[in-house]
Specification:
The complex is a heterodimer. By secondary structure, chain A is α/β, with parallel strands linked by helices. Chain A has 4 helices and 5 strands. In chain A, helix 1 (about 10-25) links the parallel strand 1 (about 5) and strand 2. The longest helix of chain A has 16 residues, at about 105-120. Chain A starts with a strand and ends with a helix. A 10-stranded mixed beta sheet of chain B has the order 16-15-17-18-14-19-20-21-22-25, with helices on both faces. Chain B has 2 domains: about 5-230, P-loop containing nucleotide triphosphate hydrolases (Rossmann fold); about 245-490, P-loop containing nucleotide triphosphate hydrolases (Rossmann fold, 3-Layer(aba) Sandwich), CATH 3.40.50. In chain B, helix 5 runs parallel beside helix 7 (about 145-160). The longest helix of chain B is centred in the N-terminal third of the chain and has 23 residues, at about 100-120. By secondary structure, chain B is α/β, with parallel strands linked by helices. The chains are: A alpha/beta, B alpha/beta. Chains A and B meet through helix 1 of A and helix 4, strand 5 and helix 5 of B.
C-alpha cells in the first residue's frame, strides 16, 4: 500500500483529503505545517508528498527547497494542492500542480498518475 | 514635505483602501495592534483582504491567519470577484494560513509563537487575525487574553508588522481586547428606511489626530470605498474671498443688469423655484457664458441626461455641443436614488480638479438632503462644500426646487440653506389674466447691490431673457398677485436693453 504524507494546515480539508485517499486504498499521514512535515519526512519518507504551499512556519516552497537538498528526499514525487498561484513555487519543480478546489476524482487520479509514473 | 511630515508618513502603514487612510490620518501606526469590529456581513474580511492585496501591489507581504470554519478556498472564491484581487499575489505576497491546529496543540503561547515565526519567515508587514472570538473561546483556563495580545502585538511590532484583529463583537462596553489595542475600527451595516448603508467609525485611535465620528463606506466590485464625512474633512478656514470687483456674467439679457453686472466671482448662488420655472435653463446659460469666455463649466444634475439637456438648450438657441467638444463644458447626470452625499461630493471635487472647472451648476439639492443618513448635518455639509469649491476657484450655482407651484407660502426643503449661500435668486410662476408667467427676482446679493424689482423671465427660442418689472402689481411672490389701486399691469423701469414680452416665447 503506497504511503502518502498530506501537508495541509486547514484541518477540515486535511481530514477530507485523508478520508478520500484512504478510501482509495492509500496509507495516509497528515502534517499541519512545514516543520512538522519535515520531521515526518526525515523520520520515514513516504512514497508521495501531497503538499499545500501556504503553511504555518515553514511554507511549501521552503519545504521543497529543503527536500531538494536532501539526498534521500531529492527525488520524492510531489503533488501540490493549493490556493496559491504557481508563482509561489518559485523555481521548484513538482510532478503535479492542482489548484483548489479539487474534485475527489481529480485528486485520486493525480495521485495515482504520479505514483504510476514513479513506479514505471 | 518637511522633516516632521516625512517622519510622520514613515511611521504609518498605508492601508491602500480608498480614503480609509484619510480618516486614519495617513494610515495605521506601523507595528500597531488594531481591532476591526463588526457583525457578520459588515465587511471586515473584505476590508482586511483588500488591504493585503493593496500592500502586495507595493511589494509588501502580509499574513492572513484564520481561525474560522470557512476554508481559504471559499474565502478566495468570494474575493475573486473584486478588482483588487490578484491571483499571482496569493502565496507570494498574500499568505493564508490556518492557526487552528497551532492553537489547539500549543495553546495561546504555541499559537503566538507560530504566528511570530511565520510572519518573520514571510517578511510580513501586516498580520490579519480573522476570528478573535475563536481565540478567546479556545484559550486555556490558565492563559490570559490580555497578556497574549500584548505579547503578540509587541513581538510583531519588533518585526515592523502591523496587526489587525477581526472580531464579530461590537466592543461597545469594556473588553480586554479593546483596552489592549491601539485603535478600534467599528464597522456596521444598517437599514435606513429601505436603504442599506455601511458605516465605519474609529472609536479609539491612539497617537494621532484622526477624523472622529461615523463615516460611510461601500463595497462593490472595486472593493471597499470609504467616504469620510465631508464636513469633517474640510476643517480649514477658507482663505479665498469673493471680491465684488470681479464678476461672472450670466449671459442672459437683463439678468446681469439685475445683479449689478453679474454674479460675484467665487460666490455661491442659490436659485430657488418650482418645477419648470427656469432654474436649469438659466444655470446652463451661466455655464455656456463662462465656457465661451474660457472658464470651464460643469453641470451636475439628477433629473435630465446630458443628451436631453443638449437638445433642450438647442431648442432655445443655446448650442452646448461645440462647448462640450472643446472640453469647456461637461454635463454629468446621476440617478437621484440610493446615493451617498459624501460619495457625490467626493466625485464632484474630483471632476472639478480633473477639468479645471471654474463654474459649477449643481442642479438639485434633494439627493444630498434626502439621502443624508443624518438630515441634521445637511446644512454643515453644504457649507463645507461651498467653502471647498470657493477654495478651488469655483463660482457655483445651486438650484433647489420648491414644492409649491402656487400659493402664498414658500417652504424651503432644506432649512438654513438660504443663509449659507451668498446670493439668492427666486423663480416662480404666477397667474395673471388667465396666463402663467415666470417671475425672477434677486432676493439677496452679498456685498453687492442688486435690482430690487420683480421681473418676468421669458424663455424663448432665442434663449432666456429678463423682461419688465411689475410695479403695478403686488403680492406677486405669493403667486397670487393683485393689482395695485388704479393700476394695471405696467412695465416699469425696464432693465438695460430689455424688450417687450412674447418675443418667440417658448
Amino acid at each position: 500500500m503506497a504511503r502518502i504524507l498530506v501537508v495541509e494546515d486547514e484541518e477540515t480539508l486535511a481530514d477530507a483529503i485523508q478520508d478520500v485517499l484512504q478510501d482509495a486504498g492509500f496509507d495516509v499521514q497528515v502534517a499541519r505545517n512545514g516543520l512538522e512535515a519535515w520531521r515526518k519526512l526525515e523520520g520515514n519518507a513516504p512514497d508521495l508528498l501531497l503538499l499545500d504551499l501556504m503553511l504555518p512556519l515553514l511554507d511549501g516552497r521552503g519545504l521543497l527547497t529543503r527536500m531538494r537538498g536532501h539526498g534521500q528526499l531529492r527525488e520524492l514525487p510531489v503533488v501540490v494542492i493549493s490556493n496559491a498561484s504557481r508563482k509561489a513555487l518559485g523555481d521548484q519543480q513538482v510532478q503535479s500542480f492542482l489548484e483548489k478546489p479539487v474534485t475527489v476524482k481529480g485528486l485520486v487520479k493525480a495521485v495515482q498518475s504520479v505514483l504510476g509514473s514513479a513506479e514505471g | 514635505m518637511d522633516d516632521a511630515r516625512e517622519e510622520e508618513a514613515a511611521a504609518r502603514l498605508k492601508s491602500g483602501v480608498p480614503h480609509l487612510d484619510e480618516i486614519l490620518c495617513g494610515g495605521w501606526l506601523r507595528g500597531g495592534l488594531y481591532l476591526i469590529a463588526g457583525p457578520p456581513g459588515s465587511g471586515k474580511t473584505t476590508l482586511a483582504n483588500e488591504m493585503c492585496f493593496r500592500l502586495a501591489e507595493g511589494g509588501d507581504a502580509s499574513l492572513y491567519v484564520t481561525l474560522l470554519a470557512e476554508t481559504h478556498e471559499r474565502m478566495l472564491l468570494h474575493l475573486r470577484s473584486f478588482r483588487f484581487f490578484r491571483r499571482d499575489a496569493v502565496g507570494t505576497r498574500v499568505h493564508y494560513i490556518s492557526g487552528l491546529s497551532a492553537l489547539r496543540e500549543g495553546g495561546g503561547k504555541g499559537f503566538v509563537d507560530t504566528l511570530i515565526r511565520t510572519a518573520r519567515e514571510r517578511g510580513a508587514r501586516a498580520l490579519i487575525l480573522d476570528g478573535l472570538s475563536v481565540l478567546k473561546e479556545r484559550l486555556r483556563p490558565d492563559e490570559d487574553l490580555r497578556e497574549l495580545l500584548q505579547t503578540l502585538g509587541l513581538r510583531l511590532a519588533a518585526l515592523d508588522c502591523t496587526t489587525l484583529l477581526l472580531s464579530t463583537e461590537t466592543h461597545k462596553g469594556v473588553s480586554v481586547e479593546a483596552a489592549v489595542v491601539d485603535g478600534i475600527v467599528a464597522l456596521s451595516a444598517d437599514l435606513i428606511g429601505l436603504k442599506a448603508t455601511r458605516g465605519i467609525e474609529l472609536t479609539k485611535f491612539r497617537g494621532s489626530n484622526n477624523i472622529p465620528g461615523r463615516h460611510t463606506f461601500t463595497i462593490d466590485e472595486q472593493g471597499v470605498s470609504v467616504y469620510p464625512r465631508f464636513e469633517a474633512m474640510m476643517r480649514e478656514t477658507p482663505r479665498k474671498v469673493a471680491d465684488p470687483r470681479h464678476r461672472s456674467r450670466w449671459g442672459i439679457e437683463g439678468l446681469d443688469a439685475m445683479c449689478a453686472g453679474g454674479l460675484v466671482t467665487l460666490s455661491s448662488t442659490l436659485v430657488m423655484g418650482s418645477p419648470g420655472s427656469g432654474k436649469t435653463t438659466i444655470g446652463l446659460s451661466f455655464l455656456a457664458e463662462g465656457a465661451r469666455h474660457g472658464e470651464p463649466g460643469l453641470y451636475f444634475g439628477f433629473a435630465e441626461s446630458g443628451a436631453q439637456l443638449t437638445v433642450k438648450c438647442r431648442n432655445m438657441g443655446l448650442e452646448l455641443e461645440p462647448l462640450q467638444r472643446q472640453g469647456m463644458l461637461r454635463l454629468e447626470a446621476r440617478a437621484p436614488v440610493e446615493t451617498l452625499p459624501d460619495a457625490m461630493a467626493q466625485e464632484l471635487i474630483h471632476l472639478i480638479q480633473q477639468q479645471g472647472v471654474k463654474r459649477l451648476v449643481l442642479d438639485g439639492l434633494e439627493p444630498f438632503a434626502k439621502e443624508a443618513i443624518d438630515p441634521e448635518r445637511t446644512t454643515r455639509f453644504l457649507a463645507a462644500l461651498i467653502n471647498t469649491l470657493r477654495e478651488r476657484d469655483v463660482t457655483m450655482l445651486i438650484t433647489q426646487q420648491t414644492n409649491d407651484m402656487f400659493g402664498p407660502e414658500l417652504h424651503s426643503p432644506i432649512r438654513g440653506i438660504e443663509a449659507i449661500c451668498d446670493n439668492l435668486v427666486f423663480l416662480r410662476f404666477f397667474e395673471l389674466n388667465g396666463k402663467l408667467h415666470r417671475l425672477i427676482t434677486v432676493l439677496k446679493m452679498r456685498d453687492s447691490p442688486n435690482d430690487p424689482f420683480l421681473r418676468e423671465l421669458h424663455i424663448t427660442d432665442e434663449g432666456p431673457r429678463v423682461g419688465e418689472s411689475y410695479a403695478a402689481l403686488e403680492a406677486i411672490l405669493t403667486g397670487q398677485p393683485q393689482a395695485r389701486a388704479q393700476a394695471s399691469m405696467n412695465p416699469a423701469s425696464p432693465g438695460p436693453g430689455l424688450g417687450g414680452p412674447g418675443r418667440g416665447e417658448a
